[in-house]
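Budget justification aside, the reviewers requested a transparent look at the raw inputs and outputs of the sequence design task funded under Objective 1. We therefore reproduce one unedited record. The lines immediately below are the structure tokens for a 247-residue chain.
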């Protein structure tokens, strides 16, 4: 049985930000659970498997899980020493209806297909940064409006990723067991030093891994971007405004 704590980090008019912390110390499978709302789940640490209908999603850092309301699922923890820690954006039914109307043409295969209950996609550098920035804003207890705006920006960026969702390969067992924590550590370091000129060698040294080994690990887990805080599709106007808000 999966043991976990769920707390509300923030409550907006059309969503909640939840903190999900698993306390499992051994492999376990949850009972069947019913999803009442449309959820977007980011993994900050750890690993779990999400079983829904005939699909098994491997959920870990660098991936985001979208789940429709009205679906039944189970979750499995298969790595004893890596219980998951997640941020969940939980939306109201009214907002999900509006989202379906606004983005249904962009991704009809997801919104208008009853056989698709969930999807797991690779995140992007921008979305990854905004997720961590959201947590920082909540910790600083900022006003509702900038938090609402950032949540909407995250939703919009994720919806655009739904136009192209390649099948995600299964991670090798050795990567799951030994190196997810390395990537989690690297991403936290990048976020904390986002406005600094960090070299790849510095990042590898921080993670206590050789340069070439680190590069291979990062590319294997974070398939959508390189281990640097840049991307050809990164919106630098938003990036700069986020930096100003932190300084």
């Amino acid at each position: 049985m999966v043991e976990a704590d769920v707390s509300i980090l923030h409550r907006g008019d059309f969503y909640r930000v939840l903190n999900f912390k698993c306390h499992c110390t051994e492999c376990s499978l949850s009972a069947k659970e019913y999803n009442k709302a449309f959820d977007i789940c980011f993994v900050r640490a750890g690993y779990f498997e999400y079983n829904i209908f005939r699909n098994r999603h491997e959920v870990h850092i660098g991936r985001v899980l979208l789940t429709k309301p009205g679906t039944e699922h189970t979750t499995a923890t298969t790595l004893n020493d890596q219980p998951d820690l997640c941020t969940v954006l939980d939306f109201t039914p009214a907002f999900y209806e509006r989202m379906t109307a606004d983005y249904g043409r962009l991704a009809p295969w997801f919104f208008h297909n009853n056989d698709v209950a969930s999807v797991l996609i690779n995140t992007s550098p921008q979305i990854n940064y905004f997720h961590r920035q959201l947590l920082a804003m909540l910790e600083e207890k900022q006003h509702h409006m900038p938090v609402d705006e950032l949540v909407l920006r995250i939703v919009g960026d994720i919806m655009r990723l739904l136009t192209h969702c390649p099948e995600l390969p299964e991670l090798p067992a050795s990567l799951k067991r030994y190196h997810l924590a390395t990537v989690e550590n690297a991403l936290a370091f990048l976020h904390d030093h986002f406005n600094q000129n960090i070299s790849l060698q510095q990042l590898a040294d921080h993670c206590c891994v050789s340069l070439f080994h680190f590069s291979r690990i990062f590319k294997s887990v974070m398939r959508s971007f390189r281990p640097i805080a840049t991307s050809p599709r990164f919106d630098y106007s938003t990036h700069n405004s986020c930096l100003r808000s932190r300084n």
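The chain has nine helices and eleven strands. The domain at 4-246 is CATH 2.60.120.810 (Jelly Rolls). Computational costs for records of this kind are itemized in the attached budget.
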